Amino acid sequence: MQDTVIIGAGPAGLSTAYHLNGPSWLILEQHERVGGLCRSIEDQGFTFDYAGHIMFTNSDYVKDVMYPKLLGDNVYWQNREAWVYSKGVYTRYPFQASTYGLPEEVVKDCIMGAVKARYEQDHGKEPQNFKEYIEMFWGEGIARHFMMPYNQKLWAVPLE
Question: Within a domain: residue 35?
Fold first, then answer.
């Protein structure tokens, strides 16, 4: 009999099992392989990731636990080169740092919105949802032209 049942064998579930440091846990995973959204599938010679951001961390502790201890040599390192197609042009990812080439009015909207978010907003107000967070943090221009459509598509739920 298990003392603890862990639902899901993604990074959080695997880390939980590792940190429980004992034999009385059971991980239940609905898929054939562990990894949760941090896994990939191969189809007709192509590799597709389940999520846009597989695993990013600056923490040496997380790197030490995830890579040698939990994943072993089951790691593929990929230098990222990503582009955003918006307003008829390709810009480097991340969009908020790479507006070069976008129409002048879009660049202006993004910059002015970011400045307003930084200096003119009520910094004591807490965002009530992800949409408000994006607008408060990035400004209305970057929110409207990239962050809200991108995150709406990525998460497939209303940002409110």
Answer: yes
Q: 89: which 2 tokens?
A: 């042009």
**Which tens digits make up the pLDDT trace of 42-67?**
899 988 877 765 677 778 998 888 87
Q: Distance between CA atoms of 10 and 16, rounded to whole angstroms?
A: 10
State CA 147 to chain mean position distance: 12
pTM: 0.60
Q: Strand pairing partners for 42?
A: 47
pLDDT of residue 8: 94
Closest CA to 105 of 145, 135, 75: 145
Tell me which residue of 34, 146, 38 sits closest to 92, measured CA to CA: 146
The answer on pLDDT for 127 being more than 80 is yes
Domain boundary among 22, 40, 71: 71
Given 71, 100, 122, the domain boundary residue is: 71
Q: Is residue 51 part of a domain?
A: yes
